[in-house]
Amino acid sequence: MSLRSLVASAVARRLIIRLAVVGALLGLAVTSLQLFGDYQRGLDALEGQFDQLDSSYLPSLIENVWLDDAERIGTLLDGIVSLPSFVQAEIRTSAGTIQVTRGEAARSPLSRTYPLTRLYGGKPVDLGVLAVTADLSTLRRQAIRQLLFGISGNAVLLLALCGLLYMQVHRLVTRRLWAIAGQVARLGRLGPAQAPPLELGPAPPPDELTAVGEGLNRMQQELTAATAAIAVNEERYRELFARSPVSLWEEDFSEVSALLDTLRPSVADIRAHLDAHPDFVRECAARVKILAVNEATITMHRAQNADELCSRLAAIFTPASFEGFKPQLAAIWNGESDVTVTSEVRTLDGDIRDVVVRWHTPPAHRTAYERVIISQEDITDMKAAQRSAEITMEKLMQAKAELERFTFVASHDLREPVRSIISFSQLLERSIAASGPLPQEAADYIAYLKAAAARMQAQVSGLYDYARAGQPAEQFQTVSLNDSLDDARLILRDRLAATGARITTASLPAVSGNRPQLAELFRHLLDNSIKFCRPETIPDIAVTATRAGEFWMITVRDNGIGIDPLYAAGVFDVFRRLHGPAQFPGAGLGLSICRRIVESHGGHISIDTTVSQGAAMILLLPAAESDAQATAPPASL
Prior knowledge:
The protein is an alpha+beta fold and about 625 residues long. Helices cover about 55% and strands about 20% of the residues. The longest helix is centred in the first third of the chain and has 55 residues, at about 135-190.
């Protein structure tokens, strides 16, 4: 243990100084109390000596004063003065005149008087008083001397104890604290991976400082592992940042945040302020510091390297770029951490590129915005493709409209020739029959002609209905499906009466649509259920409705022959028939018309393939804005 290390032990020094001060104060207090007790006992002893005078000297003095024996009185007073602490004794008359005195005046007197009386003739005779004075300075000098002796002894003892304690504290505490402090300094200077572990010496006894040292070594090990993991992750993230195919910027917005803070006392609406002060927006853009950019950014802006891009940063901004910069400033103003905005940038060779800017602040940097990650996704080609797709879609819609108009006109114009074929075939049959019986072969030919013309008429009529179903209807309104279903029943009243079909329905909802088209939809669905009924079976049709989000799901279910799930998707195709005309009449356009009506209403139609008996059509129709339920009671026919 060197003298230098002892002197440098500030903790031990401060601790020992405080202990010494406390010990000195406590010693002084104890000594003072002890001396006060000794002084009080000295006073009590003095009082006892005063009391003893009353029995020892006072009777002799009274006799000698009565006899007026001056020599004897002086001898007695000399004896009193010779006693410890007594310095003066006097005999005074009743008038206060001093008759005999011995000794000298006291510096700190303590006096007591004794009356001198004697009986004479049975009466007390006043001979005067005895005044005895003690000097308290003697007691005080003794007390001070004892105090000095006690303080000196205590000081020597305290200094010796403090020195021993100082060395022990230095050895047990401060020397180990210096070792721990040195280890902390090495950790800060060299890092946890390079600094050697703390050496606490040969098997120190387990105590708090040992636990601190061991904890420091464990912390160093954990920091070494964590630092290695952070280095690996940092390298990986930097590699991802550098090699990402998306343009990435790492920027410092701290100066921008501080500049915006200066506006808070005077600005209420930051967006209005930014719109009114474009120069302020440019100033904020100039204060953004570029920390890093990746290879994709350099490539997108057609720069040679990051230094060239950062040095010519002003060249990549366009007026639209500053418009896209405003939401980023508003995000800082509002304390937000994420912004996505569409903007544009200019490459260093002057090409304008459309980009999607995503602005993100990591959680640890959302106070000062000193680190912000910005990605720029080049959507120039995508927007060009989108514009091309829009043009193509517009042309397709025009072609579709032309095709629908052609179909409508063709179906309308073909109805008259078909009617003419049917009419003239009938006239030909009557004309030939008027001249005699028809030959069987001619009758068959005419029958084939009439049947073909009838099928063609049905197909043309169906095609006409199909084309008309695709025509834009009037503006959609809130329509009660109960009303549309009633309209369909009215159209099919003769078929319903002839077949005895039963239609059961609950109260149907209101949807957004066109009432005549929805009636046409229900007409075809009900007609199919009646047409494809099982032999010798009365058609039984149920119409129900359930809510499906923003849509109503309408189910039309019957007890007919059903539809094979293999053909569930194809039955909605134009002229698609699953049975020959000899089995079931029709042109194969009913479900196609239903699909066009449902899709023109923004809905969907499908077949429930889980139904094993009969067929079930599922309609999804948009609910009316009011979502009002029709109030008509359930009906059954």
